[in-house]
């Protein structure tokens, strides 16, 4: 399992586990450069060959609902880290 940290003054993240996926609620509080980072995460998954691994729903005020298949959870969290939306990621038991 991954544990991650982020700056709550910049972004808010919550997650809810369902049967086969994890639902993330992501709210970008500071537009630059974090909104661009989130758009890059979205583009990464929209451009890949598996269209059902991560689904994005975009709402007003820079709010995202993201449905991530459980088998893509780690990749998604690491992509958030790659785009500097997270401050740290670590494995926990």
Fill in the keyword field for this structure.
6 strands, 39% strand, globular, alpha+beta, 93 residues, 4-stranded antiparallel sheet, 25% helix, two-stranded antiparallel sheet
Structure commentary:
This protein is of the alpha+beta class. The protein has two helices and six strands, in the order βββαββαβ. β4 and β5 (63-69) form a beta hairpin. The chain starts with a strand and ends with a strand. The model has no long low-confidence stretch (mean pLDDT 94).
The major beta sheet can be summarized as:
4 strands, antiparallel
Instruction: Name the shape in a single word.
Output: globular
Which strand-content bin applies to the residues? 35-45%
**Largest sheet: spatial strand order:** 2-3-5-4
- How many runs of DSSP E, i.e. beta strands? 6
Alpha plus pi helix count: 2
Q: Kindly, what is the distance between the CA atoms of the first and last residues, rounded to a whole number of angstroms?
A: 6 Å
Which secondary-structure class do the elements indicate? alpha+beta
Following the backbone from N to C, one meets helices and strands in this order, namely EEEHEEHE
Which residues sit in consecutive blocks of at least 5 with pLDDT less than 50?
Answer: none
Question: What does the average pLDDT come to?
Answer: 94
Radius of gyration over all CA atoms, rounded: 12 Å
Helix residue percentage: 10-25%
